[in-house]
Amino acid sequence: MASLIASLRLLPRSVWLLGFISLMNDAASEMIYPLLPLFVVGTLGAGPRVLGLIEGLAEAVSSLLKLASGIWSDRTRRAKPFVVMGYGVAGLARTLIAAATGWWFVLLCRLADRVGKGLRSSPRDAMLGRSVEPGQRGLAFGFHRAMDNAGAVLGPLVAAALLGWGMELRTVFWCAAIPAVVVFVATLQLREPEAEALVQSPRFNWHLGEFPPRFRRYLIVLGLFMLGNSSNLFLLMRVRELGLPQAQVPLLWATMSGVAAVFLTPLSALSDRLGRRRLIIAGWIAYAAIYLLLGWAGVKPWGVWALFVAYGLFIAATEGAEKALVADLVPREQLGTAFGWYHLTLGITLLPASLLFGALWESVSVFAAFAFGAACALLAAGLLMFWIRDDRS
């Protein structure tokens, strides 16, 4: 623990500031996100298919912008404008969900929210990757994701407190504007990485021909995993079906995020020494087991809590390591574009994944939907183990 704290102290100012920004931004987002299924399905009267459509379309739009912003930031060698604009747009759009009178307005707000995420994500990740040495990448990305998940603890707790005081859902959503303003002000304090760390701007190739073959294979494997990883809103719908009271839903989400926040930094730092692939494979196998159990109708409310603790450990083992592996596989000057492809792969598969999950849920069974997700995770873990082999990762 002492060595981990010492390593954290050596991280540059930009990593700490980006961590604080993610903490506050996710606090604002998670005041709304865990309650969104209740709002869309309960207040606005939509169903699982509409929920899948909203999340799938929103993430698809975001993923395309993540690629474009990554390419553009590599060419201009500037990441800060994308980060400032991205967080600003998302904070405004997210808060306006409170004014929704129909699911179509929620869709528009979610699209605008994801536009902001698309603008900032790849340039921000490239900024992180360029701010540290290769041996610090797991630590830096793990710390950033840990702060993000700490915000996911804070947000639901605040939402639960506001609901406990008798506030309506819409009022809670309006309150999310406060941390959004803090985020925007903090982004203005960011500084660009040293210009001399970058070389000439790379040419863009839709066929990924200028990237290493292992990176291209990694994107394929990630796409397969994500095909079975639909929107987390379905998880929140499922726990209500399993008998968890509405008031406990934000607390459940906060618990999961808290577990992830605690373990993300040490596990991601461990990947700097033991390798990325081992952690990712273990996480994907755990994900498959969690999904199979969530699909089982016999899960008790206490079992739901245990499964969400396990889900937090899955996040801790994979989120930082997945991004650090991207930075390991590509040249430094192509990080923005590489993270654009990474985010595009994750986002573009969410639309078919969410639509397929919702269709299986309604037309076949809940267990079939969760079993499909588990199967994709197991197949992806096998491919990552045998198709993308490297002693370091």
From TrEMBL:
Resistance to tetracycline by an active tetracycline efflux. This is an energy-dependent process that decreases the accumulation of the antibiotic in whole cells. This protein functions as a metal-tetracycline/H(+) antiporter. Belongs to the major facilitator superfamily. TCR/Tet family. Its main location: membrane. The chain crosses the membrane at residues 82-107, 218-237, 249-267, 279-296, 302-321, 341-361, 367-388. Keywords: Membrane, Transmembrane, Transmembrane helix. This is MFS family permease. It is found in: Membrane. It comes from the Bacteria. It is a multi-pass membrane protein. Residues 14-392 form the Major facilitator superfamily (MFS) profile domain. It comes from Agrilutibacter niabensis. InterPro entries: MFS, MFS_dom, MFS_trans_sf, Sugar_transporter_CS, Tet-R_TetA/multi-R_MdtG-like. The keyword Transmembrane applies.
